Amino acid sequence: MTDAAPLKLFNSLTRQLEEFQPVHPGEARVYTCGPTVYNFQHIGNMRAYVFADTLGRALSFKGYALKHVINITDVGHLTSDADAGDDKMEKAASAAGKSAWDIAKFYTDAYWADIERLNIRQPFQWSIATDYVPRMIEFATSIADAHCYELDSGLYFDTSTVADYGRLARAATEDGEGRIEQVDGKRHQADFAIWRKTPDGETRQMEWDSPWGKGAPGWHLECSVMSEALLGMPFDIHTGGIDHREIHHPNEIAQNQAYCSSDHSGARIWMHNNFLIDRGGKMSKSTGEFLRLQVLVERGFHPLAYRLMCLQAHYRSELEFSWDNLAAALTRLKRMVMGVTTLRANADVASNVDHPKLVELLARFDEAISEDLNTAVALTCLDEAIAMKKVDAGQKLATIARMDDVLGFGLTTLERADLRVQPKSAVTSEADIEAALARRKEARVNKDFAASDAIRDELIAKGVEVMDGDPLGWDWRLTI
Ligand code: AMP
Ligand code: ZN
User: Fold this and answer.
1) How far apart are CA 466 and CA 428, in angstroms?
2) How much is the CA Rg of the chain, to the nearest whole Å?
3) Are the beta carbons of 464 and 433 closer than 8 angstroms?
4) pLDDT category, 1, cuts 50, 70, 90?
5) Taking Cα atoms as reference points, which of 431, 410, 446 lies closest to residue 476?
6) Hey, how many other C-beta atoms are within 10 angstroms of the C-beta on 63?
7) What separation in Å is there between the alpha carbon of 48 and the centre of ligand 1?
């Protein structure tokens, strides 16, 4: 058995590792808070999806039939997580002079393209918030009498009506939540809008009729409703970035308690990835050009180098972004691809792995993944598998393929040439470089070192570093 270790996951609710026990035997139902599609996602956001994808892959590896839902928030998310500010979608639409629907479509497509480039698997369902508004109104209606009150600005959830509000955040006392801005008439500072009325005399691009007047759903309501609609309650795991542990998820939990019963939280396990940090401040969407996947690609980095960079850290640790880290991840990925390409040239994937050394390695890999997704250790197991000597190549490939199913690089098909991404600023093409290198090789064969050096200098001027004797066989790389 290679999947014998019990799967343990860190539950933010209990702040402990817990053994995964599915609600429905043999199945794992997971909901991931997805993007608000008013802008591109930055690479920090993408870390949240790499994490959710790795969790899903690990659950599949452990033999569970995975039902994963990721939502697309195309309405209702305000510029502040609490109840202040504008709707992000409406604001972006008016700034761009486009309809909110067009903005949502454009950024959803861009997000899906990034998902694909990072080898993030397609979930069982993408749930689009605006498709569920009637169901949100039904949900809100069913809890309104016992748990909500109406103000001029909307329908508010009274957080004192559920037991232990905010236990996920562990900070929600009346005056503990300094970030929540006051709305006139709210009974408690932590109360939040589940329906926001369109102010008299105004029209929103996205608005619906409701028992509380024309308006739009609150962002927290969306996730409660879509997770309940698609996964049923209770379901297994709810994921998101660590910022959601403070407001968004406590509010979802409060709604779920109101809708179901006080003693369950909707999901049994709440998991949060820590942040990707950029000390250069290039991740803020308010500062114009910000770090998104395309920026990395334009600098010559394959998107999977970013995936590898994420997996080198534990998902619960902060991860500091730097170009050096990313370059190191790309080099590591290249080494993996070279190792696997050589193997692929010599063998086919074996149908069975029974070599004791490989069986032992797979067991260690399984242990690492089962210990709250320790991808850093799992990656070293993959390195070991690639480097292992004196074992059957087909079995080695099968071992690598099994690990790669969890880590998600596509190593059984990825080619060395795929990883060579031309930076946008490059002033030369790959074909020209190869031609110049061929001329240089000839010059060297003819011992015409002056010509050879001249070609090398020409290449350097174009930002091409020629790497003679490079052990990776990567004989050149672009430096700009
Ligand atoms: P948003 O589009 O703002 O709703 O964010 C999408 C996802 O990215 C959420 O799960 C956030 O918690 C997560 N997130 C936001 N910033 C970061 C970051 N710097 N690092 C990792 N995850 C983040
Ligand atoms: Zn959510």
Assistant:
1) 14
2) 26
3) yes
4) very low
5) 431
6) 10
7) 6
User: Using CA atoms, how far apart are residues 157 and 193, in angstroms rounded to an integer?
Assistant: 6
Return the number of other C-beta atoms located less than 10 Å from residue 393's C-beta: 16
**Half-sphere exposure at residue 143, Cβ-oriented, CA atoms within 13 angstroms:** 28
Among residues 292, 336, 290, the alpha carbon closest in space to that of 312 is found at 336
With a 6 Å cutoff on the Cβ, whether 45 touches ligand 1 is yes
User: What are the phi and psi torsion angles at 455 (to 5°)?
Assistant: -65, -40
Residue 395, pLDDT above cutoff 70: yes
Short-list 72, 53, 66, 69, CA closest to 20: 66
Cα 157 to Cα 147: distance, rounded to the nearest angstrom:
6
Query: What is the Cα 29 distance to its own chain's centre?
Result: 17
Q: Are 463 and 479 spatial neighbours (Cβ–Cβ below 8 Å)?
A: yes
Of 358 and 421, the one with more pLDDT: 358
Query: What pLDDT does residue 182 have?
Result: 66
Per the CB < 8 A criterion, the answer to whether 400 and 408 are in contact is no
- HSE-up of residue 9 (Cα within 13 Å, Cβ side): 26
* CA gap 473, 335 in Å, rounded: 10
458-476 mean pLDDT: 72
Atom of ligand 1 nearest to the CA of 283: 19
Once rounded to an integer, what is the mean pLDDT over residues 364-374? 98
Tokens of 272: 């949060």
Residues with CB under 5 A from ligand 2 (ion): 33, 223
**DSSP β-bridge partners for residue 27:** 65
Write down the residue that tokens 């240089």 correspond to. 440
Please indicate whether residue 245, judged by its CB atom, sits closer than 6 Å to ligand 1.
Answer: no
**% of the chain surpassing 90 pLDDT:** 72
Atom of ligand 1 minimally distant from the CA of 36: 2
For residue 240, how far is its CA from the centre of ligand 2 (angstroms)?
7
- Residue burial 87-100, b: 16+ Cβ < 10 Å; e: rest: bbbbbbbeeeeeeb
Which tokens go with 396?
Answer: 């080695």
C-beta of 217 in contact with ligand 1 (< 6 A) = no
Q: How many CB atoms lie within 10 A of CB 161?
A: 18
Residue with tokens 């589940």: 194
The model's pTM is: 0.90
Distance CA 168, CA 201 (A): 39
